Amino acid sequence: xxxxTYTVAVVGATGAVGEQMLKYLEERxxxxxxLRPLASKRSAGGTIRFRGQDVVVQEATPEAFExxxxxxxxxxxxxxxxxxxxxxxxxxxxxxxxxxFRMHPEVPLVVPEVNKEAIRNHKxxxxxxxxSTIQMVVALKPLYDxxxxxxxxxxxxxxxxxxxxxxxxxxxxxxxxxxxxxxxPLNVMPVSKLDKHYPIAFNVIPQCDVAQENGFTLxxxxxxxxxxxxxxxxxxxxxxxxxxxxxxxxxSESVYVELxxxxxxxxxxSLLENAPGxxxxxxxxxxxxxxxxxxxxxxxxxxxxxxxxxxxxxxxNLWVVSDNLLKGAATxxxxxxxxxxxxx
Amino acid sequence: xxxxTYTVAVVGATGAVGEQMLKYLEERxxxxxxLRPLASKRSAGGTIRFRGQDVVVQEATPEAFExxxxxxxxxxxxxxxxxxxxxxxxxxxxxxxxxxFRMHPEVPLVVPEVNKEAIRNHKxxxxxxxxSTIQMVVALKPLYDxxxxxxxxxxxxxxxxxxxxxxxxxxxxxxxxxxxxxxxPLNVMPVSKLDKHYPIAFNVIPQCDVAQENGFTLxxxxxxxxxxxxxxxxxxxxxxxxxxxxxxxxxSESVYVELxxxxxxxxxxSLLENAPGxxxxxxxxxxxxxxxxxxxxxxxxxxxxxxxxxxxxxxxNLWVVSDNLLKGAATxxxxxxxxxxxxx
Lengths: 344, 344
Prior knowledge:
alpha/beta, 9 helices
């Protein structure tokens, strides 16, 4: 097993998350025998750099998955819906970063720090949760294990890169236009496929993803549903308000947690400090707390502003920050791949 | 009374809020007999424009309040502490926009839409609440009256102008430097008088104002304490997380409210629509919701994302936006002045 190597496909290799996947596969020295970067017809033919070599990007077709062992998908839900079954049919295990299969009962939804064991039950597809869910459940896990979690009320401060490179470019161009007093380009935010587009430069938008019937957005409902599935606990209650802010990378979350038992605040801090994947930055007196600007290119989840609620005896408040392209997407996907090959 | 006119001092006339006070006194045709713009020694001698005239800014000294009927203070807590009693001694009624007297038991803390009647009890000083509190209590008032409010969990998205013009300039300069790849000027955010300064351009900072012993910040505790005082209800529970975002003007708030009784969501919407000072913008299906960019230069409080909580039977979620320099400061102060002269 130690010497086994794998043919790895990255679908969406030229996208914001795909680029981080390639970088991270290289940095973590993932045992790649052959890398197969795949993308839309439009992006095919270009090259990406991997381990000092130029690798040609191929078009993502069903045949492109012949001989692939692990296929990392991050090219949008419709691409996954169409091609993930084709990859599985050809013998690949798919790790899918889109919303396409996350709630499918036969698809494990995995954050290795929380439910690595769920990987064993896969039937070809393993889903990577939504970025805003991942960082929250990593922070909740040690509290869940020690005290139980009754409910969570979360408000997010989400970076534009969650909507892809086009959103990053739009924030930059809008900011330049705003400073120059020019008209702002408005094509992407809050949801590119919807009719109305609003400025994100020097603004905040209380909508990430499309609206649902119940008045919440899909992004908010992802946090609600995925948290239950990852903890395998239909009783855990989450209410979310998801908001886009003019930040390139790094999602922040204001998290109120009601535990099932009373807790000791020092013990909470110690549990978080000792939990895998978490870095505690928590000393408001010394102005120490997590910020997105410090989380960029880091794979951990940063937790701070840890404080007992003023009113509810079993509640506390946290501030949780992580790089949405790394732990929120690429890092988590590759950690799943690492756990997968460790099981073999 | 209808023809009575007043000598009005504006202390901090050259500041971010002072400028809006002058503009708003003019627009609302407040019955000003004489305007007396006051500022620090450094700013004295310059002129401001009022009703088409240049008016010389005088130094704010005790003697400058001779003959003043109404003194609007917005030049920081230490200036108010020193000079508000001097103004009162000389017969002025002080409307103070700083934190200096807000929690003093003999000082009414007033948001006219909520507790205008408290003005009657003043003993020379009336306090204007903190910007983030004002917009929240305006939105809560119709719900409080109809159902009672048990508790509130709020996360804020606060504009930099809450820290004055220097913060507005810093956001702009940092943004320019960031786009150019230059070193960022770091002098103001999150709290100018503290040791450490962090970038606000393309970042969010989970600290507004100084830390308190309990791990909350002063800004957060203002929301907790001021809400109780304004509603004259020590039982109302507020938990706040206050966060600075790279927005020039307009505070946003994600507000979770537990009511004392069950409610009908359509009735909630109708109560909010008919409440003074509120504009409801609420249709997520059509991408209609408040955003800071739309609230600038508007005096109302905008409410949207109105939705029943997914779990708690008496809770709902709101998104509340207002111009922090207007309803959050200047407009509210002048509405207090209007209510004051109407009482005479």
